[in-house]
Amino acid sequence: MMACNETPPGIFVALNTSLQLPGSNYRDLPTPLRILLAIIMLLMIAVGFLGNAIVCLIVYQKPAMRSAINLLLATLAFSDIMLSLFCMPFTAVTIITVNWNFGAHFCRISGMLYWFFVLEGVAILLIISVDRFLIIVQHQDKLNPHRAKVMIAISWAFSFCVSFPSVVGWTFVEVPSRAPQCVLGYTELPADRAYAVMLLVTIFFVPFSIMLYSYLCILNTVRRNTVRIHNHTENVCLSQVSKLGLVVLPKAHQMNVDMSFKTRAFTTILILFVGFSLCWLPHTVFSLMSVFSRQFYYGPSFYITSTCVLWLSYLKSVFNPVIYCWRIKKFREACLDFLPKTFKLFPKVPGRTKRRVRPSTIYVCSENQSAV
């Protein structure tokens, strides 16, 4: 086993020699399954690169799309592109060959890039979540395109500072003989364990807690506003009916209030949050157990577990553009614009436009029509 940290040899031997087991003491995936996972990962690379590249091109080529939220989504897409290009291909090769053929130095670099791009994506999701919280719960729309660019620059700098220690040997990162990618290895050094905990807390636990609190507050606010608008509308409509002297009401007049406008964008971000949680919770638990549990790290099933967990963490790069295409109409239309005309089988039919309803607006019934 080769270690990729700068711990003095004497200290490393004293603390870790008795813990090293033979490198062959692990179960590998069957060859057909390895090939299948590698093929799926290659498809993930293609979909992740193309889908996220379209997001970036849309924001770059269309000035009308350069809002604060779209700049953040484009940055999230760019981090996923970098993850697809600089990390996933080497993992796919290692899954097939079961050997790391890229050297110890690149092991450090690939581990650093992995945490760097993942942390940047998490930071962008956190910024978006706080922005949605301020808009819907606090009624404060403070994020404009200029501030979004400043936040993006800060997030890149912060992500680099947090992930950089792994490339200079401030933590124990192992050349993959027990995993298809450089991962945090088991160590008893307090500094290594402290950095591993700090890294995982920064990447998952703190963002997850803040985003969960934000979304719970948003859901509660949307629910209360929906009930308030519904009750207010019924009361006002009944008062208007009594003023007109109508005694018999064949069918109660109902306002067609489109509540989807104020919740659809939030729902899209909520789906991204759920995808982030499902893809990254297993990897976070896996990393903690790798650092602190000798029995788990040197167990025969560690390679299989690490392969599945890493594959799941990469799935998030493909997940985001699929959600954009499903949930965002402008993104679907822009994707169609990038297709050659020969691929457009059906003519574009104009759809119905819906009136937008602002979350803080109370809608009342007048005698002739609904008015704001």
UniProtKB/TrEMBL annotation:
> What keywords appear on the UniProt entry?
Cell membrane, G-protein coupled receptor, Glycoprotein, Membrane, Receptor, Transducer, Transmembrane, Transmembrane helix
Query: Can you say what this protein is called?
Result: G protein-coupled receptor 45
- G-protein coupled receptors family 1 profile domain: which residues? 51-324
Q: Name one Pfam family in it.
A: 7tm_1
Q: Topologically, how does it sit relative to the membrane?
A: Multi-pass membrane protein
Q: Where in the cell is it found?
A: Cell membrane
Q: Which organism is it from?
A: Anolis carolinensis (Green anole)
Where exactly are the transmembrane stretches of this chain? 35-60, 72-100, 112-130, 150-173, 193-218, 265-283, 303-326
Q: Which GO terms describe its biological process?
A: G protein-coupled receptor signaling pathway
Q: Which PROSITE patterns match?
A: G_PROTEIN_RECEP_F1_2
For the keyword Membrane, the answer is yes
Give GO MF terms, alphabetically.
G protein-coupled receptor activity
